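Protocol step 4 of 6: structure prediction from sequence.
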Amino acid sequence: MPSYTLRPMRITWEIDPNVSGYADADNAQAASEVLTHMILDAYADAALLTRTHVMLNIAAPLAERINRQGAAAVAQGNEWTDEAGGVRVRLTP
């Protein structure tokens, strides 16, 4: 695991206009886990097929990009933003 993925960061998300928030995370993996948890919570009442789609096409790609591009940007002291399937995420140092 690259050392830049181990830096603390704040993750801010907006899943839809009514589901948004932020958390402070110890590292990129923790930030991606928080986001995945929040996305799955937002879709808790959805059908299994919908939850599977959300996990495969939104949560997993965002988590991967958080651990790569996002963590690298935060390590350089920069803010990083991304979006997938209407879910917006921002990382800040």
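Step 5 (inspection) to follow. The two ends are 19 Å apart (CA to CA).
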